Amino acid sequence: MRRKGMKRKLNESLTAYGFLLPNLLGLTVFVFVPMVYAFYVSLHDWNALSPKVFIGFENYKEMASDKEWWKSVNRTFIFTVIYVPLLFAGSLFFAVMLNSMKQRFVGVARTMFLLPFAITSVISAVIWMFLYDPRHGFINQFFDLLGLPKQQFLGSTDQALFAIIVVIFWINLGYNMMIFLASIKEIPLDYYEAAKIDGATGWKAFWNITFPLLRPTSIFILVVTTIGSFQVFDQIMVMTKGGPANSTMVSVLYIYKQGFEFLNMGYASALAVVLFLIIFVLSLAQLRLYTKKD
Amino acid sequence: MGKNKTILTVFIFACGLLIILPIFFLVFSSFRAPEDVFKLSLNLGNLTLDNFKAVLETNILRAIWNSLVVSVTVTVVAMLFHAMSGYALARLNFPGKKFVFGWMISTMMVPFTVIMIPLYMVTKNLGLANSYGGLIIPMIFNAYGIFLFRQFYQDFPKELEEAAYVEGLSIAGTFFRLVLPLSKPMIIPLTIGFFTANWNNYLWPLIINQKEELMVVQVALANIVGGGYETAWSIVLAAALLSAIPTFIVFFSMQKYLVDGIKMSGIK
Amino acid sequence: MKIWKMFSIFSIILILLFQAGCSDSSSTGEEDGVVTLKFWDMHTDAEKAFFEELVKEYNAANEDKVKIEYTAFNQSDYSNTKLPVAFANDEGPDVFMVSPGDFTKYAESNILADLNSYFPEGAKEDFLPASIEAVTYDDKVLALPYELELLGLYYNKKMLADAGVEVPKTWDELKAAAEKLTTTDVAGLVLPTDKAAYLNFIWYPFLWQQGGNVLNEDGTKSTFNSPEVAKALDYWGSFFQDGQAPSKLQYGPWDAGNLGTGSAAMSIVGTWLIPVLEKDYADTEFGLAPIPVPEGGKPATDAGGWKMAVNANSEHVDEAAKFIMWCFAEDKSRPLKWATEVKFAYSPRISVVEEGKAIYDKGLRKVFTEEIYDSAIPEPRFGPEIVDAVGEAMQQVMFGNVSGADAAEEAHKKIEEALSK
Questions:
Q1: Which family does it belong to (chain B) (predicted)?
Q2: C23-46 tens-digit pLDDT
Q3: Does B258 contact chain C (CB < 8 Å)?
Q4: When you count CB atoms within 10 A of the terminal residue's CB, does the N or C end of chain B come out lower?
Q5: CATH tag, C149-303+383-420
Q6: ipTM of the complex in this document
Q7: CATH number of the domain that B62 lies in?
Q8: Which positions in chain C touch B184 (Cβ < 8 Å)?
Q9: Residue among C315, C77, A59 at smallest CA distance from B202
């Protein structure tokens, strides 16, 4: 081990803060200050048109009895609980598969998986609305061919949320797979060769080498996907606007409705503060859970 | 073994085809007459270029240029800043490290719609409204890249840095000369991610910019969708396809660098 | 390493580029005695072109006094993003379009300037009293109506003939017709599906036909728990439950695409559809009829339409108000062009409708003029909470297996709560 004198330590700290400075500054000005402002707004009655009226924690009190809000939180949780494991497992699975396929085709395969990511959310929503169309949609025509009954998909209160999950999964699968694949490629080959001598191949090698060594990437994907799953907005806005009968009204959509349709900016900010706290606690728990061993 | 690989390859391509099926529909429909867009016939006789002609009559090319300026600048600057921060958080010791990391991650957790109004105020007060600066600068700072770089550098082989320190390189020198060039395996996927995310950004450019000549591609696309009494989906889809081409180009050109990600074998 | 070189060259160029972009000259207010006004709009295509023309003409005629800067946005962004963000930052446009759904909120927040004193001599009397009443708040006229869009039942003549269906006149006939016309490819009746002000807008006539309403006469109490509401909800919902109205649409419910592409046999849509059908779907023959009425009911339809308003906090209320009066309250030619050439709607001005008599009797327009016009009721200007409560009740009946009465009761509570705020 290198000896670290006081000077060395100071130097290291200074360099670190130097490296962090642009982001510390930028994040403070363009994210943190607006966040603090949102909290400030949450203590007011404000419709964006007339001056703010200070009302203390009234908005938070009102929230407690807002059934629609808590239902939207619940729906968001359902979304997260299904979507996050699905995307995590899916992208890891395909990353491993692509890593062991014939390498000269990897580029083409990766691009295929990645293509949905290139399409703007509004347009992918439009395409999927066509595929999901209850009458002429591709999927229903396919079901018909198989002798299955036609489904309502986005027009059904039971299916709409899942239909949306499929779309978001479709969009993000390739990108997350690529991140996993990049990390897998970083694992030194001799690890596997050493394991081979011990007779560990296939599944065993995956569990003993690949998966543990992917831990930092896995943590990243899990935390980021969880945060992202709480903020899915564009696709839902285009495909269902929270309907039918509120069945896809997730929290962010509800906040948007309160803020920009009802112009209850103060209340919407209060909702956002609470949503932030929920995500914060969840992400912190995830980070703690996964990094405990280190 | 060889046979297994072939089966696997075929399986992956089958999945891949399933995934690009909706995109196939997008491409196909953008060449069809307006009344046929949502029809499921494979009749190739009626394909037309009219939709693309109609799209090119709008100001979409100018908008594509603007988006290119914004997305490339954001991506380049972000890569540098985020790699630096990620490295500091992963490999350097300094007081307040945990707090700084937690604080940065927490900035990802606020839905954009909520900070939209204050962010507009801040940006306007900095004199950046209606300029490239306003479109670019606020979008650079995003904890996503910092977080990913941090995770990446956590497993970076220590021996390289040790060797550099012995050689007498400073920390900063080690990072810029040695670590950063070896970070390509993570920079490339992130470049794809940042470029695409900024290319597809809609809400922020919509708010911060009023000027016609600074309109970005997604806003131009939304104007083509319109909301009038007659939505010409064929034209919208053609515009969507056209506006996705730069992202496709980025995907394909980055492929090369992705495939030969360096294997650091021999270093433990 | 080549990639890095490329990156650095690229970034230097771009940084130079955006440096140039940063030096922005914000131009609002006064310059050399010329007043600059911001005018925001949500129209598209030909309608946008019309306003662009108007602005050009006005700017030319008032060259050394007023300069109007016109910007149009996508409609949903306009109402729910651009305007709130702008007003929240005290930089709202001087002149803008306001929808009936936003009117009350804006009026309550004192954002809308009183236009009363700006009407040219005798002009106010030329407007239909109901249309002025719809924009009056606390005895102040807070917006200028410039169009009345009415609703009717459009149908595909051939499809009805082939199925042996008569043009429906009553609720029962409409229901039976929709059932008969529904096939695997064709929807019997296209109605809006997603929750939005438009959903309520199309539904209100079914309520009014029975004498029902959302609020009482003076707008202070909810009357939404009435049997008329339940009946209208149940009737509307039955089209969705029985699969005669699709649960999702490829085109917007107001869009000509539904009827035009032959994927719908009937649809309740507004006056705006006529020119589009004539222009783009001339090969198909369409018919038009008043919205069918229930047993013992009286005919009713909406008179919707956006209004022009002036920002009360603008430094140039005078100039802005003069401009909108010039657009629609002075010369007859501009409102006539708007309502008959650019789109099809009724002008709220009696003299303009008189002037355009020949056009108002052309083709399907005649049905609106002779059979529908007299039953028009202005679109209510409820605040967004009430609009949402009504929409939610509709959605519950359409998709949530809830009875009309239960959904109405739930909405009734929400409306009362919204009114008490």
A1: Belongs to the binding-protein-dependent transport system permease family.
A2: 444 444 455 688 999 999 999 888
A3: no
A4: N
A5: 3.40.190.10
A6: 0.89
A7: 1.10.3720.10
A8: 3
A9: C77
